[in-house]
Fold this protein.
Amino acid sequence: MDNERIDIPLVGRVSQCEALDQHIRDAFNGKTRVVNVLGVPGSGLGTFMDWLAKSAAAMDFEVCRGEARDQESSPMAVIREAMGEHFPSTLEPPTGESVSFRELFWVHNNGLLLAHRTKITKSEDWDEDIVAGMLGTIENFVGDSLKTRDDRILDMVDQTRKVLTEQGISDDNLPTMLSSLEDFVADAFSSGGEQLGLERLEYGNLKILIEHGTHTFLVGVFTGAESLQMRSDLNSALAAVEERLDGVLRKWDGDIDDLDPANDILEGVMDQVYAITRNLEPEALNAYRLEAVENLTGVIETLAKGKPLLLVLERLHMADEDTLRLIMHISRNLVGSRVLIASSVDIDSMEAGGPLMETCNLLRSEGLWHEERMAPLSKTNIEELLRQAYPGAWFPAAFITRLAQDTDGLPLLIMEGLKALVEDGVIFRDNGSWRAKGLLEVILPSRISDLITLRLSTLSKDESAVLEGGAILGTSFRFSQLKNLLQMEEDDLVNALDSLVRGGHLKEGSLRQDPAVDALQADDEDYIFNFQSGSIRRVLYEGLSRIKRERFHLRASEYLVSSVEKGAMTLDQTAFIAHHYCNTRKKDKALQYSELAAQKAIDGMYPEKALVHLWQAFKAAASMGKDLMYQEWQADILRRLLRQSTLIHSLDETMKAGELLLELSKEMGKPHHEMEARKWMGECLFDMGKWHQAMENFEASLMIARELSDLGQMAQCHRYIGRTHMKLGEFDLALHSLNLAQDFASMEGKLWTMIAANTDMGDLLLGQGKPAQALGFHMESLKALERLPGDTSSFEAEVERARVHFKLGEAHLALDELDLAQENLQKAHDVSKSIGHKLRTAWSGSMIARIMARRGKHQSALELAQMTSVALRRARDDTGLAFSLLSQGEALEVGGKQAEALVQLEEATSIFMRKELALPLIQTSLIQGRILLNLGRTEQGEEVLAMAEEKARKLENQRMLRQIERLLIR
């Protein structure tokens, strides 16, 4: 993960790009700079360094680039790699012994030995088949071992034992070899490279390097010291072999003769002799270091006189102290030279302390150290990244949220996950454009989990236990909770937590960091810990066995229940208990506390939270059996779900709950459940703009209500049928149904339905061009709201209050009474915002923008309308979006940007036409026609206005007809 090389668009990095661009210009003008780009593995450091190198090269910089690696055996190896031919040969460290490969095995991925080269004599009695068999066994198991480390290591050892026994290795030799193998496998998990196969094995003085290709892997065996060039040569040889024999290896039938072309490449590797840097005595080493620093500074200064120099040092946290000493010397002694040193640094390694941190602090105190941090991508960034990577494909907001959570916003993990979805056909090309399907159902690729697992595999037993316990408790947890859950010795727990904090897996938090941690009433002295990464917590949690997970959840819930008085439980405490019981087999407790949490959320006007807990309760009730009592429980929960999801305009959840209630009603033979299900589903389809399907459901619900003689439900159904007739332009039928709704509601004393039907009557009159009459109905609705019995500040009452003020604002706007329109729309906006109703807040904001535009405040209007359109696009509210686009069009017209206004108005027109919304379509066409006439496009303008005139005549909207007539006469 550290050394990523993946095509990641530079999204969300604007500020970093601008800063680095300025550093490049400053260096070009003679200001030496040291810039460090910090981020966690996977944050796109490699891609950013690529961008930096290209940007500098475009300004005619000499670009020198190197990467610090593990196990570097000589000083300033990263500098030597970066400078290449510019590195003075006189500064190469003195060499001593030499080394070469003693054995070379070329092995197929199925474990068959393809070729073998050796320098070992027969007297050494080395059996290459045993080694090849052992390596094949390891390779077969390594993929699975990444999933559950401890169990798979044991499986791997057992299989290797079996292979070695079959090969005739005596039992006396097995323990040492198997112990070595087990140690190696454990170490192998800490690899930060991109390969997921094994890369190294050590047995005594014997070392084995393994390089993996597409069809085969190449194994080099040697003894003694190691040269960095050895692995590089193995990698190059394997790539050359597989390229030369690609066609043969793809369809290889077992004929060894077909592989002869590989012989000369393998022989070339065996012939190589590698010089090993000789360890110097302290005095000699210090002299070498001093000379190297001075000479290299001179070489860099000379290079920079010809053309500016960019020295890129990647993974600087892995560099030796001599490299850091050189950076300090250059930054202090090359002032005025055209040199820019840029490095990428793992932020966790930096914060862990050591020589790099000391260098950083010294240079920072002297004003010579500049930092840019690569933060995780936000959901907005991820949305933009998806738009760039797969133009044309639509990604649901829920998928983007989940992708952000599962990857912690790390570009590497995001792109790896998306590439896997392309491979699986979930994201695909269709006639040259990108498309996506079933994104809400997919399980994000296991390779994301595998990359995270590699980082966790070297933890101690206590550290693993602490992280597992923390994963059960949440992204944040208290020390007291963890202690009770794990029942560890306190000293062991403290030591493990300390190690995990220093290692960057956890971070110490502050009180009230997360509502979940306050579920336990503890002293302020209690400590809080947070997972550094949400995806680490998820991988840990999913890796737990079912029995361990359930026992932990049960212990956590029972501890909290015993610690808090039931009558005094807060919403967060109740939700915490419900969550844990939902993950145990105590479904009765899960149902009890989920319903309690849902009611607390409803009482506190938190409908989104109520939905979460109601779904938990439904799942618990559904798991308890098919008895009528449990089914009635399920039906009651679904009815509450429908009410809450409709209040916050959550169409997907409304439809899901409605379909479940409809299915349940048929199983139970309960027509009143079907009546309610169809009514709510009809309302959902109405909000989706599917008028005819909505009407079918409303009429089916009305039929059942008549059979049951339920006047209250009949009133509601007539009200919805009236609204649907109105959307279909059937105004006489709409008026008839709304009058019936008011009559039935009055007979039953259903004040809510009377208010809603009254507001709909006003809406109907506004659509007919009678805003003054519409005002009367809306004012009656507002007065009736004040007469509501009980708590008039309930969420439902506030939603209706916002709706009435919005409709009043629309009517005043139609009468050009801008002050009164803005006053009511602002009230609608404030009420919606106070209860967290994002859609109604956006709708009212869009209308306020129209008023601003009419008053000449075009820039403020445009900014507000653009803000609301972003929210409405994310919510997939096309109708609201169209009104926002209309507001943007008006603002742009007032600001003199008529061509840009037409673009916004055309998109609004297409939505209004698709939704069959006649009145706003006329309003939009009116503005379009006016702009087209002003631009001299008379024929087009008259055509648009003629269409608007036809629709206005159909609606008998005299006010609109007069406005159109004035424009045509002009």
User: Anything to note?
Assistant: DSSP finds 42 helices and 17 strands in the chain. The first strand starts at residue 33 and ends at 39. The chain has a mean pLDDT of 77.
